[in-house]
Amino acid sequence: MSPIELNKRQDTILQIVKENGPITGEQIAERLNLTRATLRPDLAILTMAGFLDARPRVGYFYSGKKTMTTASESMMNLKVGDFQSLPVVVSENMTVYDAIVQLFLEDVGTLFVVDDQSHLQGVLSRKDLLRTSIGTQELTKIPVHIIMSRMPNIVYCKKTDPLIGAAKKLIERQVDSLPVVNETEKGLEIVGRLTKTNVTKAFISLAETHDL
Ligand code: ADP
């Protein structure tokens, strides 16, 4: 069993919560001059390892106990929402040309396509766009819904899903990213983007936390 070894930032967070808890993630981020999103993986690891407790609408407080958590237990507790990135969303009527521009501007590999109700309809990958660029001159005329991969064949995940399950979907379906969604009665609302890079980062933070 490998004992938890905290990195410098996690140590600082623990100190802040010990002295000021209960304190919200937002307030911790402010003290460290970082964004809440940047702190999310650290807070997840500290909570999962038993150093911190979190109560909805109250915040984080020091639990006082030092639980020994194995790396495999920690891994099973990682959630999609702690590692996801911001989604880049385009309308199904956007032209292929504009989608290519968007891909460069936003520096992502995959665009998610929505209808005018903002519900997930499809996915556009780098190669979807490249294939169309080779095959046609009409990039400024073709809307992306003609070439995208579409529902119901889109593989997605939810914020609360275990990261390991989402990682398996990425590998089994051989795709680079999954939309992170809220399931509503009317359709799927996109709230994030889970990529192979996110999973790789989680893998590294797990190794660092456990001093592997
Ligand atoms: P690339 O095509 O650039 O290699 P991917 O491996 O992500 O990128 O995509 C492969 C194919 O799978 C593309 O046609 C893409 O539209 C589709 N695709 C990508 N992500 C998903 C997903 N989450 N669900 C279903 N299909 C997807």
TrEMBL record:
Sequence ranges assigned to domain HTH deoR-type in this UniProt record: 6-67
Coiled-coil annotated spans: none
Record CDD domains: CBS_pair_CcpN (cd04617)
Domain CBS residue range list: 83-142, 148-212
Keywords: CBS domain, Repeat, Transcription, Transcription regulation
GO molecular function: DNA-binding transcription factor activity
Pfam families: CBS, HTH_11
Species in which this protein is naturally found: Ureibacillus sinduriensis BLB-1 = JCM 15800
Protein name, UniProt field: Transcriptional repressor CcpN
SUPFAM superfamilies (UniProt xref): CBS-domain pair (SSF54631), Winged helix' DNA-binding domain (SSF46785)
